[in-house]
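Run DNA/RNA-binding protein Alba through structure prediction, thanks.
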Amino acid sequence: MMTSVVQESTTTTSPLQTTTTTAQARTSDIPPHVLIVGKKNALDYIAPALFRIGTFGELVVRAKGSMSIVTAVNVAEMVKKDVSGLETRSISIGTEEIVIEGMPRRVSYIEIHLAKPAPKVAAETPVEAPAQPQEDKLAQTASTAKKIRARAKKSTTAAKKRTTATVRKQQKADA
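Sure, done. The structure for DNA/RNA-binding protein Alba is below.
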């Protein structure tokens, strides 16, 4: 079951005018490849991050506030370990001024842009190695067969010597 949390924040555009926006209105402005990190554990953001990388090929991890920034960096590092070949395109940091309850507050933010590298397009087709002539293949097969026969001959000769020695020992023992 999915629940939505609506947070209201007030911003002042001029000293006389105050506007109220909701979190739902702000989420429609966020592109689908952006992951906003909050106060949850870093592991809670791994699955959505991997989904975005798999679907869109890129991921932007955004966070505001000191604890969320730490979590965002942890999420980005965990995702880079999970997805091979993922590269960091850019990291932007800064301070944003937000008016909360009539008082201006400065909040730090970070954006980490991760993306899969674009597939390299080969301009030229690879050159294939020339095929070996049929005679070379036959010569290699013949030399391999000779080696196998030589090994078999040596092993049978050694076996005959062992049996001959055993028979001689038995003959001496019987005599």
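The helical segments are 23-27, 46-56, 66-82, 134-174.
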